Amino acid sequence: MKEILLLTVRESRPLTGLGVLLQPESEARVLALWPLHTALLVQLHYPGKQEISTIASVEEVARAGEPGLRSLLLTQENAPLPPIGTEVWWLGEEARWEDLL
Description:
- This protein is mainly beta and about 100 residues long.
- The chain has strands at about 5-15, 20-25, 40-45, 50-60, 70-75, 85-95.
- It starts with a strand and ends in a 7-residue tail after the last strand.
């Protein structure tokens, strides 16, 4: 399967006990293809050309009076904090939550 660009990171924010939330530069419409909390095998393409494979879950962030925005959450313990401009590519597979335990 061909890799699909899910989003380019505008902001990455650690969430204590949950992981690292990745906010997209622009609306990541492709993330609407999956239900919330779906775990995806992804590859982070850092601006400096480094690539890291990991698992991210599909999430939605909503602020009062605004529609929800699909985002990704890196859920592994000690998840990396990707810099602005990092591209997140889907590797064509969903992950099983059992694999994370």
